[in-house]
Amino acid sequence: MIDLSAVASTFGLLFVAEMGDKSQLLAMTLAHRYRPAPVIAGVFAAFFLLNAVAVGIGEALFRLVPRDAVLLCAGALFFAFAVKSWRDGDASNGGVAAGVARGAFAASFLLVFLAELGDKTQLAMVALAASLGDLWSVFIGGTAALWLVSLMGIVVGRAVLTRVPARIIHRAAAAMFFVFGALAVSRVAAKWVHAS
Questions:
Q1: How far apart are CA 41 and CA 128, in angstroms?
Q2: Is the pLDDT of residue 178 over 90?
Q3: What's the rounded Cα separation, in Å, for the pair 153 and 148?
Q4: Which of 96-105, 127-136, 149-158 shows the lowest mean pLDDT across its residues?
Q5: Range with the poorest average pLDDT among 3-7, 55-59, 88-92, 178-182
Q6: Are 41 and 169 contacting, i.e. CB atoms less than 8 angstroms apart?
Q7: Which of 153, 154, 135 is nearest to 51 (CA)?
Q8: What is the pTM of this model?
Q9: Residue 14 contacts residue 124 (beta carbons within 8 Å)
Q10: CA–CA gap between residue 16 and residue 101 (Å, rounded)
């Protein structure tokens, strides 16, 4: 049976924790680059899978997949998108890129999945599921919160960013992707430095 108080507390915690976080910023940027429908589908699918992992097999995932490998993969993906965004700014004709639906879905899914894998919100869901003992309530509350925050980013991002020249958006997105990539790789490097 679903515990509405557990749903509400999980929703509130994760909604506040994710507001303004990197996945919301990614959703905003992707909404400018692609049509909103495949971005929404990709982001929602990523969070659905991440949350299922968090409440179901989160602890096993952390034992099976080395954290450094996830961070390096995420960093490489962010760097690749930084280069692509910068190049898109050079080739921009001032409009919003329509994008291919499958490419938009894949990009949205992969970026959000890798950005959030092992992030504070996923760890919070693991902790909530363990402490409350109510996997479905935590899953429903957490998923609803993350979907709403992302949807707000996509809608607001699309409305606001369409008024800004595309070249500026692409440059800002490139900088944002580069920073996320550098942060991911620096976490691995810092761990290696401390270990040696």
A1: 26
A2: no
A3: 9
A4: 96-105
A5: 55-59
A6: no
A7: 135
A8: 0.66
A9: yes
A10: 30
Cβ–Cβ under 8 Å, residues 178 and 82: yes
Six-digit token string for 93: 């004709």
Q: In whole angstroms, what is the distance from residue 123 CA to residue 116 CA?
A: 10
Distances (CA, A) of 34 to 9, 45, 144: 33, 16, 23
Q: For the chain, which residues make up each domain, given as ranges?
A: 4-195
CB atoms within 10 A of CB 185: 18
Structure tokens at 151: 């949807």
Distance from C-alpha of 72 to C-alpha of 140, rounded to nearest angstrom: 30
What is the DSSP secondary-structure string of 32-98? HHS-HHHHHHHHHHHHHHHHHHHHHHHHHHHHHS-HHHHHHHHHHHHHHHHHHHHHHHHH--SS---
With tokens 């994760």, the residue in question is: 14
| Residue 62 Cα distances to 50, 134, 138, angstroms | 13, 21, 19
